[in-house]
Amino acid sequence: MSRQIITRDGKPAYVVIPIEEWRRIEATLEDRVDAAAVRAFRKNPTETFPDSVVAAILDGTHPLKALREHRGLTQAALAKISDTSSVYVSQIERGRRHAGRKLRAKLASALNVEAGLLASED
Length: 122
What we know:
Distance between the termini: 49 Å
Number of strands: 2
Number of domains: 2
């Protein structure tokens, strides 16, 4: 491998390497990150969701609605479990209102998901 070392104040500061070598290093690092993510998931598996749920969220459906429908709950049923009103759930799903931290925790608990999954990118 050819390389060029650039110094600053008499000390090595940079290394210039051929682009192909850099691409190989970059691919190796990416593979290691991916492998670490797989190991972490296998050690502590979390729930995964069907492509249809992820696609709905990516297409703009509020995460609360996508996850509620995935769980087979109506707005009324989710509201009852979460001690709120179905009107409020509807407003959250349509982006007209935001769930506060406490309500988001209750909704997440009812849906058996992490509260952070219910945050939307409004």
